[in-house]
Amino acid sequence: MGISSQQVSDAVQRATGPRRLPCSVLPNATNNFAAEGKLGQGGFGEVYVGVLLDPKLEVAIKKISRESQQGRKEYISEITIIGQIRHRNLVQLIGYCHKKDDLLLVYEYMPNRSLDYHLYNKDRLLAWPERYKIASGLASALLYLHEEGEQCVIDRDVKPSNVMLDSEFNSKLGDFGLARLVDHDCDPLPTVLMGIRGYMVKEKGPTNQSELLCICACISNGTNVYGKKVSCMSNILVKNASGFSLRPPQHDGGWDSGDLTSLQ
């Protein structure tokens, strides 16, 4: 059974974080969602760059596909979960709007795009200081989601395309449509595979690092070898690093120890 427009409305009305924006504002901010302002397209919608006028702010606007029931679920999840928390290494959800079947999410704009763009861009390789900075920020975000909030946020969809980079290459984790909340003392039950092929991980299952390819995905407090072994995060830094050695430069901290706190 699908999620109705009324169910979406009832769910987001309980949210207290991001502000609801008039639906007329976002077409104006994006020049009516002009093709030249399109940043990308995912499984559940399109993303555009835009400028809000009050206050003046450059933003990224995700337009959820009208046909996607999963997109509706993710819309609710983004507003009710990530909209309630703040951290320097999480992409901020600024606002949202919905009118019948039009569902839109407004985020802070990340001018250096996503991590996957840089990992596969042969024209501009990331330097080691940038790679270390990106990993440090991602570790800080995952530590916060798993251990420092009132509840543990299980992301279930950490991948390079969801790691965004600001103008100074600080990393910010985004896209929490598949996330869910659990109490810190709870051990989550197994669920279906989440994410996309190539980055799919199980909330419980074999601790096979090959499942991760080039990303360190934190899944839960209790069974999570991925988050506690941050040394595997170096995989995202080594990917496409021709001209670099296969080990990062020596930094005090957790490249080999897997200590999250030492990478903050």
Automatic annotation (TrEMBL):
Chain residues that bind ATP: 63
GO molecular function, one term: protein serine/threonine kinase activity
SMART domains named in the record: S_TKc (SM00220)
Catalysed reaction equations from the record: L-seryl-[protein] + ATP = O-phospho-L-seryl-[protein] + ADP + H(+); L-threonyl-[protein] + ATP = O-phospho-L-threonyl-[protein] + ADP + H(+)
Top-rank taxon: Eukaryota
Pfam families documented for this protein: Pkinase
Keyword list, A-Z: ATP-binding, Kinase, Nucleotide-binding, Serine/threonine-protein kinase, Transferase
UniProt-listed Enzyme Commission number(s): 2.7.11.1
Domain Protein kinase: from-to ranges: 33-264
Family matches, as PANTHER family: PTHR27007
Name of the molecule in the record: non-specific serine/threonine protein kinase
Organism the protein comes from: Elaeis guineensis var. tenera (Oil palm)
Gene name, Swiss-Prot/TrEMBL: LOC105032573
